[in-house]
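Sorry to interrupt, but I need a hand with the structure work. Leave the record below and I will have a look:
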Amino acid sequence: MRDIGVHALALRNSLVAVAVCHRAEPPERTMARERKARAIGFNHVALEVDDIEEALAFYGRLFKFELRGKSANSAFIDLGDQFLALQKGRTQPADEGRHFGLVVDDKEAVRAALADAGIQPLPGPFLDFLDPWGNRIEIVGYDNIQFTKAENILRGMGLAHLSKNAKAIKELTDKGMAPN
């Protein structure tokens, strides 16, 4: 019994010490200490695959792309001011819910390419599929989302003709980010 009392006293003293350390501070001191960087986008997404050449051949059946660089263990698919990195070394099982949305200029062309390649889209309201290594990709049409490439990037990619639909423009306008 005596041990329990000693442990209880030590626990109480620890909690008091924690409470003293975590006292509320004036907001101006807290805000100065909580200065955080703002996340503003993605430079790249990395996918793990078993074989770089096979991965390039697979994705080449679905998408038109240029390589930014390549080695024995990785390849970098250029997306203008971003890139998709393919890295050798997939070891985990197939993705279920985890995915990323790959923005394309023509979603229906991807749907047709998937069918031509014998790849069945995953069930659900979106155009999702698994690559041979279990990476889940959602195909998203550029016209239908808020994500916007700068005009100079689109021009450099030969995609200056792309535009947003009314729904995407309204979403951007509601956030004070209406396109010109």
